[in-house]
């Protein structure tokens, strides 16, 4: 992820109460953006990649406030190599979490990404993404 967002990056575990800006927002179009690529080895078709990219934007919304303003040029694309079979919803859940963490890591407020083989230095702590995927699979099997 490359992060130059108009909004603030929210530290992991913190929340913000919704509030209206006190006046006109002091931004200028075209000067801020957050862009990235979610690449997976899952076997996804064009629609599956679109769904993964949409979920990646959920990760932006979890990490940046406000997000997707008219001052931002936010974009995330998804690409799949097709090497392994995977359910698109599992990839979507992971994409949202990975993008959320990647945004924070890009500005030095994220958690440790070493568990997914990231070259980024550790920046915090939290459950490994494998634990998140295990929880997604457990919940799906209970349905």
- Give helix % range: 25-40%
Q: How far apart are the first and last residues' alpha carbons, in Å?
A: 34 Å
How does CATH name the architecture? Answer: 2-Layer Sandwich
Order of helices and strands: EEEHEEHH
Shape: globular
Query: What's the structural domain tally?
Result: 1
Number of strand elements: 5
Main sheet makeup: 3 strands, mixed
What is the name of the CATH topology? arginine biosynthesis bifunctional protein fold
Question: Which strand order does the major sheet show?
Answer: 1-3-5
Output the number of helix runs. 3
> Which structural class should the secondary elements be placed in?
alpha+beta
Mind explaining what this structure looks like?
By secondary structure, the chain is α+β, with helices and mostly antiparallel strands. The chain has a single domain (33-141), classed as arginine biosynthesis bifunctional protein fold. The chain is 35% helix and 19% strand. The chain has three helices and five strands; from the N terminus they run βββαββαα. Strands 1-3-5 form a three-stranded mixed beta sheet. The longest helix has 19 residues, at 88-106. The protein is globular and about 50 Å long. The model is unreliable at 110-116 and 120-125 (pLDDT under 50).
């Amino acid at each position: 992820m490359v992060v130059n967002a108009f909004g603030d990056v929210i530290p992991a575990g913190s929340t913000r109460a919704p509030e209206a800006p006190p006046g006109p927002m002091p931004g200028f179009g075209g000067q801020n953006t957050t862009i990235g690529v979610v690449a997976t080895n899952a076997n996804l078709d064009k629609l599956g990649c679109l769904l993964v990219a949409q979920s990646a934007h959920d990760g932006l919304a979890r990490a940046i406030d406000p997000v997707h303003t008219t001052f931002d040029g936010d974009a995330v694309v998804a690409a799949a190599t097709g090497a392994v079979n995977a359910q698109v919803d599992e990839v979507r859940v992971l994409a949202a979490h990975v993008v959320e963490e990647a945004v924070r890591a890009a500005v030095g407020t994220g958690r440790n990404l070493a568990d997914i083989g990231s070259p980024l230095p550790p920046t915090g702590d939290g459950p490994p993404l494998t634990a998140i995927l295990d929880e997604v699979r457990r919940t799906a099997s209970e349905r």
